[in-house]
Amino acid sequence: MADLEFTGEVVEWRGPAPFHFLVTPPAESEWLQEIMRDVTYGWGMIPVTGRIGGTEFATSLWPRKGSFWLPVKDSVRAAEKIELGDVVTVGLSIRG
């Protein structure tokens, strides 16, 4: 069972290479900030196992401007046919 579930729009953050993310909504961000000290491995990163549709993946939530950004790997997007701008639901289990 997931520790957290939310629905969001797939957004792009352009750095040296473009990455696709889901951004945690305010209530979920607040909860994550409350537990962050107990589960982070450094720099506020929170290790999670995610599930979108039938695809499970391991990654970490990135803290950014009061929210957390969940990277959505290319392999996950391909498997679930997810495009930039799509609205998807993700279940997250905190690894620790």
Automatic annotation (TrEMBL):
Origin: domain of life: Bacteria
Protein name: DUF1905 domain-containing protein
InterPro entries xrefs: AF2212/PG0164-like_sf, DUF1905
Source organism: Ornithinimicrobium avium
